[in-house]
Write a structure and sequence with these properties.
By secondary structure, the protein is α/β, with parallel strands linked by helices. The chain folds into two domains: about 210 residues, 3-Layer(aba) Sandwich (Rossmann fold); about 190 residues, Rossmann fold. About 45% of the residues lie in helices and about 15% in strands. It is built from 19 helices and 14 strands. Helix 11 packs across helix 17.
C-alpha cells in the first residue's frame, strides 16, 4: 500500500467541524473510488470526508487506476492507501482474490476499530476473509445492482452465499434496496438500516451560473427548452426512451427542445444514440465527461432534468444521487419508479415519477406538460431545492456511524 496522508491543515479543518480528536479508526474498502467516476465513487468520497468531519481517523483502501493520485489524495481530510490496479468486475475471481489479500494486509497493518465495505467488490473481499476468520466487526453498504447479480449469476451467488448473515451492520441506500435485500437473502432485519446518500456542499452553496452564457456556449437559444441528463451513457439510464419521447412531441414543442447529455459510456452506444436522435430530428448535445463546476453550470441553464432509468437483469437504480444534485439547483426531474428513485423524487411535489414500466408516450406527455407550464416547473423546482437540503453527507455519515459502532 502507498498511503497518502493529508496535510495537518486538512485534518484540522475536517476535525474542527464537530470534534477535535479521533473517535475511532475506520477503514473503508472500495474499488470504485476516484479517479473512477460514478455514484459509488461519490458516496465513498462523501462518506469518508464526513466521517473525518465527525472526528474519526479515516482510511480508504483503493486502486490507483494507474495514475498518480498523490496530489489530490494529499488534500483530502482522510488517508488514502493506493495499490496498482484498475476496475474490477465482480466476475473477476483473480482480481477479487488479490483485493481480499490487500484488504487483509490493511486490516492487520491499521488495526481499525471498524471496517466497512463501500462497494460490491469490497463486500466480496470481506466475505472471503470472514470465512477464514480474517475479518470481524465489519459493515456493508449495499447499493442495489449487486443484489441482482448475487441472486441471478452463478459465480457471485456462490461467492456471496450466506454473506449477509455476518456483517454487524448493513447500510442500504434506499428503502427499496432494503426491501429487496430482506426478500432475497437471509439477514437479520435489525442489522439493516437505510441511509440515503448525500451530495457535496457545492451543489447547495455555489452561485448560479450565467444561464445565457452557458446556453450560448452550447449554441442554444435563450428561449429554447433545455433538457439535461447526467449519467453514465449506457442503455440502462433510459437515453433511447428519451429520444422516442422527444420524437413524439408536437412539432412546435420539439423544435424548442435541446437535450444535453453529460457523461461517457461505450462508443457503440454513443453511435446508436446519435443515430436515433438524428432519425427523430432531436437536437442532441453530447457534452461528455465534465467536472462538477461544468455539470452544475449546465444544470443551472436547464429547464428539466430527465433520466428514466430502466431496471434490467443486471442493473437497478438503487437511489439516484443525480436527481438530488439537480434538485439542489432548483431543477425538477422526470423519472421512472425503478428501485429507489421514488425516494429521491416526490411525485407531484418535487418532480414527476412515472410508473416503473412507463412507455415513451408516458414520458412524452410528462415532458410536454412541464414544457407548457413554466409555473408548474418553478413550483416543483422550488420544492425540490427545499427537499434536497436534507441530503447531506454529514447526515449520511452520522447514520452509518451510529449503526456501525452499536
Amino acid at each position: 500500500m502507498r498511503p497518502t496522508r493529508p496535510p495537518a491543515a486538512s485534518r484540522a479543518r475536517a476535525g474542527s467541524r464537530q470534534a477535535t480528536r479521533a473517535v475511532a479508526r475506520v477503514l473503508l474498502l472500495a474499488y470504485e473510488f476516484a479517479p473512477f467516476r460514478g455514484g459509488i465513487a461519490s458516496l465513498v468520497d462523501g462518506l469518508a470526508t464526513a466521517m473525518a468531519g465527525l472526528g474519526h481517523d479515516v482510511h480508504v483502501l483503493a486502486p490507483d487506476y494507474f495514475r498518480d493520485n498523490s496530489a489530490r489524495d494529499a488534500d483530502r481530510a482522510f488517508t488514502v492507501h493506493r495499490f496498482p490496479g484498475d476496475f474490477c468486475s465482480i466476475q473477476s475471481v483473480d482480481k477479487l482474490t488479490a483485493f481480499a489479500t490487500r484488504c487483509r494486509h490493511a486490516i492487520r497493518e491499521l488495526q481499525p476499530d471498524a471496517v466497512h465495505a463501500a462497494d460490491p467488490q469490497a463486500q466480496m473481499a470481506l466475505t472471503a476473509l470472514a470465512r477464514f476468520g480474517a475479518a470481524r466487526d465489519y459493515g456493508f453498504t449495499v447499493h442495489g445492482t449487486e443484489l441482482l447479480r448475487y441472486h441471478d449469476e452463478m459465480m457471485p451467488r456462490l461467492w456471496m452465499r450466506g454473506a449477509f448473515r455476518r456483517p454487524r451492520a448493513i447500510i442500504t441506500v434506499s428503502n427499496a434496496v432494503r426491501g429487496l435485500l430482506l426478500e432475497w437473502f437471509t439477514v437479520d432485519p435489525s442489522r439493516v438500516t437505510v441511509a440515503h446518500p448525500g451530495i457535496a456542499r457545492h451543489w447547495f452553496d455555489a452561485p448560479a451560473a450565467d444561464r445565457t452564457e452557458v446556453r450560448h456556449r452550447l449554441s442554444v437559444d435563450d428561449d429554447a427548452t433545455v433538457l439535461v441528463t447526467v449519467a453514465r451513457r449506457v442503455r440502462e439510464k433510459g437515453h433511447l426512451l428519451v429520444v422516442d419521447a422527444l420524437a413524439g412531441l408536437p412539432t412546435d414543442l420539439r423544435d424548442r427542445v435541446h437535450w444535453v447529455v453529460v457523461g461517457e459510456g461505450p462508443p457503440a452506444f454513443r453511435t446508436e444514440l446519435e443515430d436515433a436522435a438524428a432519425r427523430a430530428s432531436v437536437r442532441l448535445h453530447l457534452a461528455g465527461e465534465l467536472g462538477d463546476d461544468d455539470v452544475r453550470a449546465i444544470i443551472d441553464a436547464a429547464d428539466l432534468f430527465v433520466m428514466p432509468s430502466l431496471r434490467t437483469p443486471r442493473r437497478l437504480e438503487g437511489f439516484g444521487i443525480a436527481y438530488i444534485e439537480a434538485a439542489a439547483r432548483g431543477v425538477t426531474a422526470i423519472a421512472r419508479a425503478t428501485g429507489g428513485v421514488a425516494e429521491a423524487i416526490r411525485d407531484g411535489e418535487t418532480g414527476i415519477v412515472l410508473p416503473e414500466y412507463a412507455t415513451a408516450d408516458d414520458l412524452r406527455d410528462a415532458i410536454a406538460h412541464l414544457i407548457r407550464d413554466p409555473h408548474e416547473r418553478k413550483r416543483l423546482g422550488d420544492a425540490a431545492r427545499t427537499f434536497a437540503a436534507d441530503f447531506t453527507w454529514s447526515r449520511h455519515a452520522a447514520r452509518v456511524c451510529t449503526h456501525l459502532f452499536t
